Task: structure prediction
Amino acid sequence: MKLIFSFILTVLIFCKNDITEIKLNYNRTTDNQVWSNGIDVLTIKASGKEIQKVLTDETGTAAINKAMINKHGAVDVFLTSIGVEELYLTTIDNAAIDLYEVNIPRHYRFKFDRAVCPKCNKVDKIYKAVYGENQVVTIEVTEGGDTIYSNISGRKYYMGTCVTNALNPLWYCDRDKIQF
Ligand SMILES: [Zn+2]
Result:
């Protein structure tokens, strides 16, 4: 009997060591009551490509496999709950760290009048996100004759949706192709 117990315990410890947890710390105020107090959807990407979606539990905690982090070297975590445009949260590039905590709402450093990108820590490719019906798309034709559509016009990045709530991204980094 004692032998069986120790075997089960060993398996549980192994499983726990095998994952990295992501914990969303919500700071709720009277201004942002739109947030649901439950399950959130996180999308994990590597080099811009979706790897998997994971759900948080009701404490805001989700888990991903360390093997996946090691395989890709670094993965980006986005909040993609219903009603939220893809919001960049953090980059996980160290599988030795067991817990990544993310405070929500996000707070960014500012330089001049732009938010500093939380991924590349630069401000030169930052565009302000614009929501609304007047979607602007810039069309460029390359020398090779290819047509490129861009959501960037002037210093703005047009989101192409009217959906807004307190969690929707306010900025876009064209270097990392992330909204934050
Ligand atoms: Zn960036």
In short: Residues 117, 119-120, 122, 173, 175-176 surround zinc ion (CB under 6 Å). Residues 2-17 form the longest helix (16 residues). The first strand starts at residue 19 and ends at 26. The chain has two helices and 16 strands.
